[in-house]
Amino acid sequence: MQKVSYMGNGETTEFAFNFPYFENSNIIVTKNGNTATGYEIIGNPGGLDADIPYIGGKVVFETAPTALDSITIARQLPLSRVTDYQPLEKISPTTLNQDMNYMMEILKDLQDEFETLQTQYSEIANKESTAVLLAKMQEIHNEITAVSAQISALGDVSQIRNDITTLNTRTTGMLDYVIESQTPTAENNYTWFRKYKSGWIEQGGVWTGTWVVGNGISGTKTINIPVAMNDTDYMVFVEMSKGNSTGGDQMWSFHEPQSLTTTSFSIVVGGYNNSRTITRFVWQLSGVAA
Known about the structure:
Elements: E1 3-7, E2 14-17, E3 27-31, E4 34-35, E5 39-45, E6 54-61, E7 70-75, H1 93-125, H2 128-154, H3 157-170, E8 178-182, E9 191-196, E10 200-213, E11 219-224, E12 235-239, E13 245-246, E14 252-258, E15 264-271, E16 276-288
Antiparallel strand pairs: 1-7, 2-6, 3-4, 3-7, 5-6, 8-9, 9-10, 10-16, 11-15, 12-16, 13-16, 14-15
Protein backbone atom coordinates (compact mmCIF):
# COMPACT_ATOMS: atom_id res chain seq x y z
CA MET A 1 0.00 0.00 0.00
CA GLN A 2 1.39 3.37 -1.04
CA LYS A 3 0.77 6.24 1.35
CA VAL A 4 1.96 9.65 2.51
CA SER A 5 1.52 11.34 5.91
CA TYR A 6 1.25 14.97 7.00
CA MET A 7 0.76 16.98 10.20
CA GLY A 8 -1.79 19.79 10.11
CA ASN A 9 -0.93 23.37 11.05
CA GLY A 10 -4.35 25.01 11.30
CA GLU A 11 -3.87 26.81 7.94
CA THR A 12 -3.12 24.27 5.18
CA THR A 13 -6.17 22.66 3.55
CA GLU A 14 -4.50 20.95 0.55
CA PHE A 15 -2.31 17.85 0.87
CA ALA A 16 -0.72 16.33 -2.24
CA PHE A 17 0.12 12.75 -3.13
CA ASN A 18 2.04 11.45 -6.16
CA PHE A 19 1.05 7.81 -6.53
CA PRO A 20 -1.16 6.75 -9.45
CA TYR A 21 -4.73 5.52 -8.99
CA PHE A 22 -7.74 4.57 -11.10
CA GLU A 23 -10.74 6.17 -9.32
CA ASN A 24 -11.40 8.26 -6.21
CA SER A 25 -12.59 5.26 -4.21
CA ASN A 26 -8.97 3.97 -4.35
CA ILE A 27 -7.86 6.85 -2.10
CA ILE A 28 -8.28 6.36 1.67
CA VAL A 29 -7.91 9.44 3.89
CA THR A 30 -7.61 9.20 7.68
CA LYS A 31 -7.25 11.80 10.43
CA ASN A 32 -5.63 10.65 13.67
CA GLY A 33 -6.18 7.05 12.67
CA ASN A 34 -9.90 7.45 11.96
CA THR A 35 -11.71 7.83 8.65
CA ALA A 36 -11.60 11.51 7.69
CA THR A 37 -14.60 13.53 6.52
CA GLY A 38 -15.14 16.94 4.95
CA TYR A 39 -12.64 16.69 2.09
CA GLU A 40 -12.50 16.41 -1.73
CA ILE A 41 -10.09 14.40 -3.89
CA ILE A 42 -8.79 16.18 -6.99
CA GLY A 43 -6.79 13.93 -9.30
CA ASN A 44 -4.09 14.77 -11.84
CA PRO A 45 -5.24 13.14 -15.11
CA GLY A 46 -2.71 11.04 -16.95
CA GLY A 47 -4.10 11.95 -20.35
CA LEU A 48 -6.82 10.78 -22.74
CA ASP A 49 -5.24 7.44 -23.56
CA ALA A 50 -3.16 7.03 -20.38
CA ASP A 51 -2.59 3.51 -19.09
CA ILE A 52 -3.52 4.75 -15.57
CA PRO A 53 -6.23 7.46 -15.38
CA TYR A 54 -4.64 9.53 -12.59
CA ILE A 55 -0.94 10.01 -11.87
CA GLY A 56 -1.43 11.68 -8.49
CA GLY A 57 -3.52 14.41 -6.98
CA LYS A 58 -4.43 16.21 -3.80
CA VAL A 59 -6.87 16.07 -0.93
CA VAL A 60 -8.60 19.35 -0.16
CA PHE A 61 -10.22 19.76 3.29
CA GLU A 62 -13.10 22.15 3.88
CA THR A 63 -11.51 23.11 7.22
CA ALA A 64 -7.76 23.12 7.76
CA PRO A 65 -6.61 20.32 10.12
CA THR A 66 -5.13 21.58 13.38
CA ALA A 67 -1.52 21.23 14.52
CA LEU A 68 -2.58 18.18 16.55
CA ASP A 69 -4.06 16.35 13.54
CA SER A 70 -2.15 13.60 11.75
CA ILE A 71 -3.28 13.15 8.13
CA THR A 72 -2.60 9.98 6.12
CA ILE A 73 -3.41 9.55 2.42
CA ALA A 74 -3.15 5.99 1.14
CA ARG A 75 -3.99 4.00 -1.96
CA GLN A 76 -6.05 0.84 -1.60
CA LEU A 77 -6.81 -1.14 -4.74
CA PRO A 78 -9.47 -3.86 -4.47
CA LEU A 79 -8.21 -7.25 -5.61
CA SER A 80 -10.77 -7.76 -8.38
CA ARG A 81 -11.14 -7.65 -12.14
CA VAL A 82 -11.68 -4.25 -13.73
CA THR A 83 -12.92 -5.30 -17.16
CA ASP A 84 -14.90 -8.36 -18.26
CA TYR A 85 -13.81 -9.10 -21.82
CA GLN A 86 -16.55 -10.59 -23.99
CA PRO A 87 -16.07 -13.05 -26.86
CA LEU A 88 -16.28 -11.61 -30.40
CA GLU A 89 -15.96 -8.03 -29.11
CA LYS A 90 -13.06 -5.81 -30.13
CA ILE A 91 -10.50 -5.31 -27.39
CA SER A 92 -9.36 -1.72 -26.89
CA PRO A 93 -5.58 -1.42 -26.37
CA THR A 94 -6.14 1.40 -23.87
CA THR A 95 -8.61 -0.69 -21.86
CA LEU A 96 -6.33 -3.72 -21.97
CA ASN A 97 -3.31 -1.68 -20.87
CA GLN A 98 -5.28 -0.12 -18.02
CA ASP A 99 -6.45 -3.57 -16.94
CA MET A 100 -2.92 -4.97 -16.96
CA ASN A 101 -1.53 -1.92 -15.18
CA TYR A 102 -4.22 -2.24 -12.51
CA MET A 103 -2.98 -5.74 -11.76
CA MET A 104 0.63 -4.58 -11.82
CA GLU A 105 -0.13 -1.82 -9.29
CA ILE A 106 -1.82 -4.36 -7.02
CA LEU A 107 1.28 -6.58 -7.27
CA LYS A 108 3.47 -3.59 -6.39
CA ASP A 109 1.36 -2.90 -3.28
CA LEU A 110 1.58 -6.54 -2.24
CA GLN A 111 5.33 -6.50 -2.77
CA ASP A 112 5.68 -3.36 -0.64
CA GLU A 113 3.64 -4.92 2.18
CA PHE A 114 5.68 -8.13 1.99
CA GLU A 115 8.99 -6.26 2.12
CA THR A 116 7.74 -4.16 5.06
CA LEU A 117 6.65 -7.28 6.92
CA GLN A 118 9.95 -8.97 6.13
CA THR A 119 11.89 -5.97 7.49
CA GLN A 120 9.80 -5.81 10.66
CA TYR A 121 10.14 -9.55 11.25
CA SER A 122 13.88 -9.36 10.69
CA GLU A 123 14.17 -6.59 13.30
CA ILE A 124 12.12 -8.60 15.79
CA ALA A 125 14.00 -11.83 15.15
CA ASN A 126 17.35 -10.12 15.75
CA LYS A 127 16.38 -8.83 19.21
CA GLU A 128 17.91 -10.67 22.16
CA SER A 129 14.55 -10.89 23.92
CA THR A 130 13.08 -12.61 20.88
CA ALA A 131 15.87 -15.16 20.88
CA VAL A 132 15.22 -15.88 24.56
CA LEU A 133 11.49 -16.22 23.87
CA LEU A 134 12.08 -18.61 20.97
CA ALA A 135 14.41 -20.70 23.13
CA LYS A 136 11.77 -20.83 25.88
CA MET A 137 9.11 -21.84 23.37
CA GLN A 138 11.37 -24.63 22.15
CA GLU A 139 11.95 -25.75 25.73
CA ILE A 140 8.20 -25.85 26.37
CA HIS A 141 7.70 -27.78 23.15
CA ASN A 142 10.28 -30.33 24.25
CA GLU A 143 8.59 -30.70 27.66
CA ILE A 144 5.18 -31.20 26.03
CA THR A 145 6.66 -33.83 23.74
CA ALA A 146 8.21 -35.66 26.69
CA VAL A 147 4.98 -35.58 28.72
CA SER A 148 2.99 -36.76 25.71
CA ALA A 149 5.34 -39.72 25.40
CA GLN A 150 4.85 -40.55 29.09
CA ILE A 151 1.06 -40.35 28.75
CA SER A 152 1.18 -42.60 25.70
CA ALA A 153 3.24 -45.11 27.67
CA LEU A 154 0.53 -45.22 30.36
CA GLY A 155 -2.02 -46.46 27.90
CA ASP A 156 -5.69 -46.00 28.71
CA VAL A 157 -5.76 -43.38 31.50
CA SER A 158 -9.47 -43.98 32.09
CA GLN A 159 -8.71 -47.58 33.08
CA ILE A 160 -6.13 -46.38 35.60
CA ARG A 161 -8.73 -44.00 37.07
CA ASN A 162 -11.22 -46.87 37.35
CA ASP A 163 -8.61 -49.04 39.07
CA ILE A 164 -7.89 -46.29 41.62
CA THR A 165 -11.62 -45.83 42.33
CA THR A 166 -12.06 -49.57 42.77
CA LEU A 167 -9.08 -49.77 45.13
CA ASN A 168 -10.37 -46.85 47.19
CA THR A 169 -13.80 -48.52 47.48
CA ARG A 170 -12.36 -51.88 48.50
CA THR A 171 -10.10 -50.34 51.17
CA THR A 172 -12.72 -48.08 52.75
CA GLY A 173 -12.70 -48.79 56.47
CA MET A 174 -9.48 -50.77 56.21
CA LEU A 175 -6.94 -48.01 55.74
CA ASP A 176 -6.81 -44.67 57.53
CA TYR A 177 -4.17 -41.99 57.40
CA VAL A 178 -3.46 -38.43 58.49
CA ILE A 179 -4.70 -35.81 56.04
CA GLU A 180 -4.11 -32.69 58.15
CA SER A 181 -2.03 -31.86 61.20
CA GLN A 182 -0.66 -29.06 63.38
CA THR A 183 2.44 -29.00 65.54
CA PRO A 184 2.48 -27.02 68.81
CA THR A 185 4.05 -23.56 68.63
CA ALA A 186 3.79 -20.31 70.56
CA GLU A 187 1.60 -18.92 67.75
CA ASN A 188 -1.07 -21.63 68.25
CA ASN A 189 -0.81 -21.59 72.08
CA TYR A 190 1.07 -24.90 72.03
CA THR A 191 -1.86 -26.93 70.72
CA TRP A 192 -1.63 -29.78 68.22
CA PHE A 193 -3.89 -32.11 66.26
CA ARG A 194 -3.86 -35.02 63.81
CA LYS A 195 -6.93 -35.38 61.59
CA TYR A 196 -7.47 -38.67 59.72
CA LYS A 197 -9.17 -39.47 56.42
CA SER A 198 -12.02 -41.23 58.27
CA GLY A 199 -12.83 -38.06 60.24
CA TRP A 200 -11.23 -39.26 63.46
CA ILE A 201 -9.12 -36.63 65.21
CA GLU A 202 -6.62 -36.53 68.03
CA GLN A 203 -5.70 -33.18 69.55
CA GLY A 204 -4.20 -31.71 72.66
CA GLY A 205 -2.19 -28.96 74.26
CA VAL A 206 -0.19 -27.63 77.19
CA TRP A 207 -1.47 -24.98 79.59
CA THR A 208 1.05 -22.86 81.50
CA GLY A 209 0.45 -19.89 83.73
CA THR A 210 -0.58 -19.00 87.28
CA TRP A 211 -3.76 -20.64 88.59
CA VAL A 212 -4.47 -20.22 92.30
CA VAL A 213 -7.01 -22.54 93.97
CA GLY A 214 -7.73 -23.54 97.57
CA ASN A 215 -9.09 -22.25 100.86
CA GLY A 216 -12.27 -24.17 100.11
CA ILE A 217 -12.80 -22.53 96.73
CA SER A 218 -12.76 -24.61 93.51
CA GLY A 219 -11.15 -23.26 90.35
CA THR A 220 -12.28 -23.74 86.76
CA LYS A 221 -10.34 -23.42 83.50
CA THR A 222 -12.03 -23.54 80.09
CA ILE A 223 -10.00 -25.06 77.26
CA ASN A 224 -10.79 -24.06 73.67
CA ILE A 225 -10.45 -26.96 71.25
CA PRO A 226 -8.38 -26.15 68.11
CA VAL A 227 -10.60 -28.19 65.75
CA ALA A 228 -14.35 -28.43 66.45
CA MET A 229 -15.74 -31.85 67.26
CA ASN A 230 -18.77 -33.48 65.69
CA ASP A 231 -20.49 -33.99 69.06
CA THR A 232 -19.68 -34.15 72.79
CA ASP A 233 -19.08 -37.92 72.81
CA TYR A 234 -15.32 -37.54 72.80
CA MET A 235 -12.72 -38.77 75.27
CA VAL A 236 -10.65 -36.30 77.30
CA PHE A 237 -7.47 -36.99 79.25
CA VAL A 238 -5.86 -34.37 81.53
CA GLU A 239 -2.60 -34.76 83.44
CA MET A 240 -2.10 -32.32 86.29
CA SER A 241 0.99 -33.15 88.32
CA LYS A 242 1.34 -31.88 91.91
CA GLY A 243 4.94 -31.33 91.02
CA ASN A 244 3.72 -28.49 88.84
CA SER A 245 2.07 -26.66 91.73
CA THR A 246 3.17 -24.90 94.89
CA GLY A 247 1.80 -24.44 98.43
CA GLY A 248 -0.19 -26.64 100.79
CA ASP A 249 0.06 -30.38 101.45
CA GLN A 250 -2.10 -32.32 99.01
CA MET A 251 -5.13 -30.30 100.07
CA TRP A 252 -6.68 -30.17 96.59
CA SER A 253 -8.61 -32.48 94.25
CA PHE A 254 -8.95 -32.75 90.49
CA HIS A 255 -12.39 -33.29 88.99
CA GLU A 256 -13.03 -34.92 85.61
CA PRO A 257 -13.52 -32.54 82.63
CA GLN A 258 -16.95 -30.92 82.66
CA SER A 259 -19.19 -28.70 80.48
CA LEU A 260 -18.19 -30.48 77.26
CA THR A 261 -19.17 -28.73 74.02
CA THR A 262 -18.03 -29.28 70.47
CA THR A 263 -15.53 -26.41 70.80
CA SER A 264 -14.48 -26.41 74.49
CA PHE A 265 -14.48 -28.19 77.84
CA SER A 266 -13.74 -27.19 81.47
CA ILE A 267 -11.28 -28.44 84.06
CA VAL A 268 -12.29 -28.11 87.73
CA VAL A 269 -9.86 -28.26 90.64
CA GLY A 270 -11.14 -28.18 94.24
CA GLY A 271 -9.14 -26.76 97.13
CA TYR A 272 -9.48 -27.48 100.85
CA ASN A 273 -7.50 -25.84 103.65
CA ASN A 274 -4.57 -24.31 101.87
CA SER A 275 -4.29 -22.48 98.56
CA ARG A 276 -2.16 -23.86 95.77
CA THR A 277 -0.75 -22.30 92.61
CA ILE A 278 -0.94 -24.56 89.52
CA THR A 279 1.63 -23.69 86.84
CA ARG A 280 1.19 -26.36 84.17
CA PHE A 281 -1.02 -29.20 82.92
CA VAL A 282 -1.46 -31.11 79.65
CA TRP A 283 -4.65 -32.29 77.98
CA GLN A 284 -5.57 -34.58 75.09
CA LEU A 285 -8.85 -35.65 73.49
CA SER A 286 -9.94 -37.89 70.63
CA GLY A 287 -13.18 -38.40 68.72
CA VAL A 288 -14.89 -37.49 65.46
CA ALA A 289 -14.22 -34.04 64.00
CA ALA A 290 -17.02 -31.83 62.74
